[in-house]
Design a protein that fits this description.
It is built from three helices and three strands, in the order H-E-H-E-E-H. Helix 2 links the parallel strand 1 and strand 2. The protein is globular, with a radius of gyration of 16 Å.
């Protein structure tokens, strides 16, 4: 990492706090899977919350119909994405508007 990380780092799954996502009904979790399959799932997800990584940034570019929540980092968002604040929150009004638009788009796809 070009000298930015001074020593070896171990990622411990215990610090991920994935249990915080248990409040989301019907959430499908896919953890530590094949990278290509993971990218395919992310690129076709109905909703996707991006992490601050170039890997997760690629998927929503390929995802034409999903709701994307972007947290600012070195890559710029696409105008259709919802942008979270420093705490990871998005505007309720913006989310509702995007959900209504998404619902209409999905409905139109059924009859195309």
């Amino acid at each position: 990492m070009d000298g930015r990380i001074p020593s070896n780092v171990t990622f411990d799954p215990e610090v991920n706090h994935l249990e915080e996502f248990a409040v989301i009904p019907n959430l499908a979790r896919f953890i530590n899977g094949d990278p290509i399959e993971t990218l395919r799932r992310m690129a076709t997800a109905d909703a996707l919350v991006l992490s601050r990584s170039s890997y997760s940034y690629v998927a929503p570019i390929l995802n034409a119909n999903g709701i994307i929540i972007y947290h600012p980092f070195w890559h710029s968002p696409i105008k259709e994405w919802l942008i979270s604040d420093a705490n990871g929150s998005v505007s309720d009004a913006d989310l509702i508007a995007r959900l209504e638009c998404w619902k209409r788009e999905r409905s139109d796809l059924k009859y195309a």
